Amino acid sequence: EDPEESTAAFDSLVTIFDTMRKPGAAAYYLEQKAMRSGTQEDWTVAAERFIILGKYMGENDQKAAWYQHGSEAYKKALELDPENVDLQIDLGVTLVEGAGFTGQMPMEGIGMLRKAIELGPDNAKGHFYLGYFAERSGQLDKAMERYGKVLELDPGNMETHLYMAQVCEKQN
Predict the structure, then answer these.
(1) Is residue 160 within 8 Å of 150, Cβ to Cβ?
(2) Do 107 and 127 contact (CB within 8 A), yes or no?
(3) To 5 degrees, how large is the angle CA 145–CA 149–CA 152?
(4) Nearest to residue 46, comparing CAs of 20, 66, 16?
């Protein structure tokens, strides 16, 4: 019942399952910790772990579950910090990337990204992902526009230079 003991117990379980190379169990206990603590930080950590699982582990059904848990955790984090632009971006990216597995429409995630950019127009991460998803959907002019904005905000962003070069190559 003691919150400090509860946090320590969940942290120990996460460490044990990470050591045993059981990331699904570790993510489960991170989610349980977030449910117990109710903090934005714990929900964010749980969400991040589920999204890593969704990207790199499991078959499609399992990936759908990971992305679903991740998006729900990000939503709970956003309920606690609704003006957090980075959380909005992370949720938007999760919704777009998970759409193929969860059956949801990717435009919900794109809408989240656009909303985040409205709240934080100088957020390079948001512009990058809008460019990335534009490129993936074949909208190369939009991708170049977004990547250009990223480089305007962060001229040394080498990843964006690489993505712009790929778009230029696609455009000949």
Answers:
(1) yes
(2) no
(3) 135
(4) 66
